[in-house]
Design goal:
single chain; six-stranded mixed sheet; Immunoglobulin-like; 705 residues; mainly beta; 4 domains
């Protein structure tokens, strides 16, 4: 045998453009080949001579630091041989010195970065840039993340922009968010997180383990993960959570520095976790719950303490109701729990409570929350309480110099409302509450609740603040298992609404409507308060109170106005770093029957819009102009205005410093755009000032060849 006849590889072509098109990975901005598991891809191998029958040709795929055959981290594949760990390789055609090979990875292969070496006899060829990224595959029926509907895959895997719903149940609004899972360094950042997670090779096969690990790594607690949470109102040492408009800058900065990025709040954590999951190939959506309960210690109750003016007190509450909370749902078949709980799984990367010693949450089957099967992994009790707790109101009064607590109302249907996500293929909100809960009052809801209660330990009715431990029980009877809305003898009912638009700089004009349905003459004591609060329920400022006694001849109603002058709130509004909401609380008591009722409503300020002007369509690499126009229609000067704009595939995030915008003034900023990617693209803009924390706008453009 002459040495020159020994077979050598002279080159490997990863056929990137055809493979990535077939694998729906052509969007990734990366040199290497990115493919999805369980689906064939082709490589062309060039040889020093024609292949002969006696020649041995082997493709070796290695994952991790030190790939070895015995633990499955090294796969050695010969054409037409039996499969190896579920991987197969076949010869598509041989032409002269060229071989076209087809490789099919296992539909449950570990996801991550593989190195490809080609072995011929005793020669090993290492192609330059021989790294292949292997992702989850929602297009493959044998993959546990398989999703049958194409429009859903388009939205939950491939859409790199979206909307996160925030505000309050009374005024929900949308915050555009750029997920940007295909941008430069984002896939590498996700691979870095996978390595950092220390998941075993076997765990990397399973999206349940991967999504749980990612929920831990997106927050900085425990493991110096991506984002540091901060709800203090002081963000000088970083970026205020309100100033982000997408995940790209956060993940790029993290990947570059390997240090937590400052700062996040819940929608930022959810936006980043959504990017990470979509990037890895797991279908994922952002989910917003309005009036979400936090830290109920599994007793399914949140206590709200009011002073005798009806103002909410921060200091007494350990638990809280957030105006909104955002987490994620990831789509997968669960192989680790009984059948029937596959589909959407809640995961949450906002650091709230430790689970198995780390700040991580989920995956929790959404069906388990609905059915009350709260014993299922992971963290189902916590998620169940977030959307199903009761809210109990107490008034704290001094009696003989001691604090006494008086119960003034229980709401059994106030928590976990308007659960929302972005619609598939459309820019609108879709309500998915029915996926998390049965309709209030239905037979199924009662059964689900009884099931959940059998695994939880709801307490009797004691106020649960640290100060309250010495207080004797108020009404020693414990709650019935399925509490009903308090039925009052008079049919007392309260409604709170604004009567004029809530523009910063104008008086806040609101009204409390008292309704009574029982016939007769009734005397009602009403107290009402107005406060500014963060979305976490933390009160920032007391703005004013009313106290009235009214007489009603039932059935009838009366509207009591509540008006706050601009001077009462503008100073607070321009000194806080966060967006604040207007909280109105009302307590009514019917003298004749002792009926009591408490109601609260949070409302958002209303702002003038940003207008985005640009063509409907543009062609690849041809410049076009985009203008952002804002007219200050408010009665106040907006100080220190910044305009943040980003267009994925069009231009990088840009900030315009606009200084102060006086009332009536029109501001116009322009940017020259060069589209680098085809298809539907979006431009997102956000205006921030001392007085206003978030006026957003977005506009789509279609890029053609």
């Amino acid at each position: 045998v002459f040495p020159e006849s020994s077979l050598k590889v002279t080159g490997v072509d990863f056929l990137k453009s055809q493979n990535t098109r077939q694998h729906h990975t052509d969007g990734y901005n990366i040199q290497s080949l990115v493919v999805r598991r369980g689906q064939p891809f082709q490589v062309q191998v060039s040889l020093s001579r024609e292949l002969r029958a006696a020649d041995k040709l082997t493709l070796r795929f290695g994952i991790g630091e030190n790939p070895m055959k015995n633990n499955g981290s090294l796969l050695s594949l010969k054409p037409e041989r039996e499969d190896f760990n579920g991987w197969k390789i076949s010869m598509v055609e041989r032409k002269g010195k060229e071989c076209l090979l087809s490789v099919t990875s296992s539909p449950n292969a570990p996801v991550g970065k593989y190195n490809l070496h080609v072995k011929t006899g005793s020669n090993i060829y290492k192609p330059e840039n021989g790294v292949i990224y292997l992702l989850f595959n929602p297009w493959c029926e044998d993959d546990v993340v398989y999703m049958a509907n194409d429009a859903e895959k388009e939205e939950y895997v491939l859409n790199d922009t979206g909307t996160i719903y925030v505000g309050s149940a009374y005024s929900i609004y949308d915050r555009p968010w750029n997920f940007g899972q295909f941008e430069e360094f984002i896939l590498d950042a996700c691979m870095y997180l996978l390595d950092k997670s220390k998941l075993s090779l076997a765990q990397r096969r399973d999206p349940a383990h991967v999504s749980r690990a990612m929920s831990a790594l997106v927050n900085a607690n425990d493991d110096s993960g991506v984002l540091l949470g901060n709800w203090s109102g002081n963000y000088v040492s970083g970026t205020s959570p309100m100033d982000w408009i997408g995940s790209v800058m956060i993940l790029q900065k993290y990947y570059k520095t390997k240090k937590p990025v400052r700062y996040g709040q819940c929608w930022v954590f959810a936006g980043v976790l959504n990017t990470v999951m979509r990037c890895l190939g797991v279908p994922c959506r952002c989910v917003s719950t309005f009036d979400a309960a936090h830290d109920t210690e599994e007793n399914l109750r949140v206590d709200v303490y009011l002073n005798d003016k009806g103002e909410k007190l921060n200091s007494l509450s350990f638990d809280s109701v957030w105006n909104f909370h955002v987490w994620n749902d990831a789509w997968m078949k669960r192989t680790d729990i009984p059948n029937g709980f596959s589909g959407w799984q809640a995961i949450d990367s906002t650091p709230q409570e430790q689970s198995q010693g780390r700040f991580q949450c989920g995956p929790c089957p959404v069906k388990a929350v609905r059915e009350g099967d709260v014993y299922l992994p992971y963290d189902a009790k916590f998620v169940y309480a977030e959307v199903n707790a009761d809210r109990v109101y107490w008034v704290v009064k001094k009696v003989n110099g001691k604090d006494k607590y008086f119960k003034v109302g229980t709401e059994t249907q106030a928590i976990g409302k308007n659960i929302s996500t972005k619609a598939v293929g459309q820019n609108r909100r879709v309500d998915i509450t029915k996926e998390y809960k049965y309709p209030e009052g239905s037979k199924e809801e009662r059964m689900s609740m009884q099931r959940a209660y059998s695994f939880l330990r709801p307490s009797g009715l004691m106020p649960r603040s640290g100060y309250a431990s010495t207080v004797q029980t108020i009404g020693a009877n414990t709650e019935p298992l399925v509490p009903k809305e308090p039925v009052t003898k008079t049919g007392l009912h309260l409604e709170i609404a604004n009567t004029e638009p809530l523009h910063p700089g104008n008086p806040l004009e609101m009204a409390i409507t008292v309704k009574i349905s029982a016939p007769g003459n009734w005397t009602v004591d009403l107290i009402g308060s107005c406060q500014l609060q963060y979305y976490t329920g933390n009160v920032q400022a007391n703005l004013g109170t009313i106290k009235e006694t009214i007489t009603l001849e039932g059935p009838s109603e009366m509207q009591i106005p509540l008006k706050i002058a601009p001077d009462a709130y503008m100073k607070t509004l321009s000194s806080v770093e966060d967006e604040v909401l207007i909280l109105v609380t009302a307590i009514a008591e019917v003298k004749e029957t002792n009926d009591k009722l408490t109601k609260e409503t949070s409302m958002r300020f209303q702002y003038p819009p940003i207008t985005v002007q640009m063509p409907e369509t543009a062609s690849l690499y041809n410049d076009f102009n985009c203008a952002f126009i804002f007219k200050n229609k408010l009665n106040v000067t907006l100080e220190n205005c910044k305009l943040l704009v980003e267009g994925l595939g069009i231009f990088k995030m840009t900030t315009f410093e606009l200084g102060d915008i006086m009332p009536g003034r029109i501001m116009k900023s322009e940017i020259v755009c060069t589209p680098t990617r085809l298809g539907e693209k979006k431009i997102v803009a956000k205006l921030i000032s001392n007085q206003i924390k978030g006026i957003s706008a977005e506009k789509g453009i279609f890029i053609t060849e």
